[in-house]
Specification:
Radius of gyration of chain A: 20 Å
CATH architecture of the largest domain in chain A: Alpha-Beta Barrel
Oligomer: homodimer
Distance between the termini of chain A: 53 Å
CATH topology of the largest domain in chain A: TIM Barrel
Largest sheet of chain A: 8 strands, parallel, barrel
Helix content of chain A: 40-55%
Number of helices of chain A: 15
Largest interface: A-B, 38 and 38 residues
Strand order of the largest sheet of chain A: 4-5-6-10-11-12-13-14
Number of domains of chain A: 2
CATH superfamily of the largest domain in chain A: Queuine tRNA-ribosyltransferase-like
Number of strands of chain A: 16
CATH class of the largest domain in chain A: Alpha Beta
């Protein structure tokens, strides 16, 4: 019976590092999950993704249920086989994209009904349907409950309503998921910026009982300070012996500050999206390769990262590719960015193990400040 | 003193297979050169290109002289270092793209003056400038003379005029190129569809003396039959002991028929361009992955080709990527197509060595016919 074994091997304050062991491989935590939206981590082969050191990737239920459809993925042997990724996959519930990309027809207690952003076709996503798609059809290793999100600005009353509906959906997800030998189900804490609502949400989820717990409803526009404020109390409300996952986060500074507050897992489109727009993430912050100062810069993006995109190609060449709008520029910068994020996670894990996370937080903060200086 | 050693190891009729040995590596002939237009074989890393079995790639003088400029490439250590391709590079003269992409201001005996298609800036390309760019600044292993092309339809008088100007430019290129230890210079036969002009062109080039000889002015709209008609006599006019290069060709059927007539080298954007548009080349001709018949086809494009794009990903997955307009679809199909073209060349070389080229020609012709049937 899952839950997957989760072993915390070292702590540094609230931060912890460890191993989540799944039948498809071990996930070193804190872990960053590249986002493979529509069955592909955008612009990269799975071998390139694996070379960055990723232990797990994320797949999007919303995109896959619309195209090629979850039923087709199932007929083709499941998501791992379809996209040739043999290590673990976590799928989201579809809820977030339904609300951000789909055209919502109705949100009821039973389900969300919406129109596809691709072809306008009508679909419904209920807790039970989300479980069927993620667990049975796509075959994810880690399945997320369906939750209801509220955008910002919102009211405490609206946040409470969505949190309580999410808790009721959590219960239905748990019932539909049932008992499985090789798959885990994570609940999602909601409650917006309210400590009381976050506590109520955590208590309800713990009562139902999940294999892991996500902090949801952040990275929706509250800003770094607003996020950190919630992370000062929210992760500690979730069981210490199970993985905690901060959804949709984030920039290196967000990640290191969240890890310092006890978060174990992250996902974000930032590295690949930035890469497709000419931006590279480094220890000195994000740089724009289109900038003329790189035109004859023969240094690589990061000589210490073994993937070719980071250490073998020059900034001058990347500058040329970005200026010429070459696909290879998007490929190499996406690849480097994912490799940099994995290097960041490896450094966070090492810092926690060696009790020097505070110094790493200062280093990442300095990089973020340098980047915003050079952008100004 | 170059010319590079060229050893013909077997013949089958007019066809020959052999080795052209350059300081940067051996080129197995007949050879197909992927086109790396603007310092990148579009959408692919150089490691992916190398994995297809390519011994040499082509770089475009026109694109590189405009962006990032040949002088910048030189300051960055030359084209090989700039783009991380350590094996041989052949550069074209720039003449073809000046005429097809640039806005011509004037073609005089001295030079072609034109405006950049990128930013409208004015440039001149003379035989001497082309040699400087290719040999000194980009550092190509094989340098092409500047020639003058005429589009179709044309007249014999116009074809004669362009051929004779090309011959005079050949002489100036040879003088400007001088004597070099590690670089070869190829002349280009012109003369359109006229056997007499082709003979005059060949005689003039041989008198000047080149390290290799290209058949130019084909693949400009004359069609397969028109091309084969010229190839029935043109290659035989060029020295048998030096490589013969058919520029800008082509489809598998064009290639095998040209090889049968004594051509040793080819280049074409077709595999990468087709790949970016959802098309895959196979022994059964070109197929369009967007076609619904591939939606649940679990077979790979070609299980016998070792690169992942050919043998590891399913057609169903490629269909999904193309439908979803994912960059990875363009990457994988470009990669497969280049690998298929290299497999085709390997098969042509083996067939020549084993005296069975006639059977291979029938096989490729059947594939081309099957594809045009299924397209109809």
């Amino acid at each position: 019976m899952a839950a997957f074994p989760f072993q915390v091997t070292a702590t540094d304050g609230a931060a912890r590092t460890g191993l989540l062991s799944t039948p498809r491989g071990e996930i070193r935590t804190p872990a960053f999950m590249p986002v493979g939206t529509a069955g592909t981590v955008k612009a990269l082969t799975v071998d390139q993704v694996a070379e960055t050191g990723a232990d797990i990737i994320l797949g999007n239920t919303y995109h896959l249920m619309l195209r090629p459809t979850a039923e087709r993925v199932a007929r083709l042997g499941g998501l791992h086989k379809f996209m040739r990724w043999e290590k673990p996959i976590l799928t989201d519930s579809g809820g977030f994209q339904v609300m951000s990309l789909g055209k919502i027809s109705k949100v009821s207690e039973e389900a969300v009904t919406f129109q596809s952003h691709i072809d306008g076709s009508r679909h419904a996503l209920s807790p039970e349907r989300s479980m069927q798609i993620q667990a049975d059809l796509l075959g994810a290793d880690i399945v997320m409950q369906l939750d209801e999100l509220v955008g910002l600005p919102t009211t405490e009353a609206r946040a409470a309503e969505a949190m309580r509906r999410s808790a009721r959906w959590a219960e239905r997800c748990k019932a539909a998921f049932g008992q499985r030998d090789t798959q885990d189900l994570f609940g999602i804490q909601q409650g917006g910026q309210s400590e009381a609502l976050r506590r109520e949400s955590a208590e309800r989820l713990i009562e139902i009982g999940f294999d892991g717990y996500a902090v949801g409803g952040l990275a929706v526009g509250e800003g770094h300070a607003g996020m950190v404020e919630v992370l000062d109390y929210a992760p500690a409300m979730l069981p210490a012996d199970r993985p905690r996952y901060l959804m949709g986060v984030g920039k290196p500074l967000d990640i290191v500050e969240a890890a310092a507050r006890g978060i174990d897992m992250f996902d974000c489109v930032l590295p690949t999206r930035s890469g497709r727009h000419g931006q590279a993430w480094t220890w000195e912050g994000a740089i724009n390769l289109k900038n003329a100062r790189f035109a004859e810069d023969e240094s690589p993006l990061d000589a210490s990262i073994p993937v070719a995109a980071s250490s073998a190609y020059s900034k001058a060449y990347l500058h040329h590719l970005v200026k010429a709008d070459e696909i290879l520029g998007q490929v190499l910068l996406s690849w480097h960015n994912l490799a940099f994020f994995q290097a960041l996670m490896a450094e966070i894990r090492a810092a926690i193990a060696e009790g020097r996370l505070a110094a790493l937080r200062r280093r990442v903060a300095a990089g973020a400040a340098a980047a915003s200086d050079s952008a100004a």
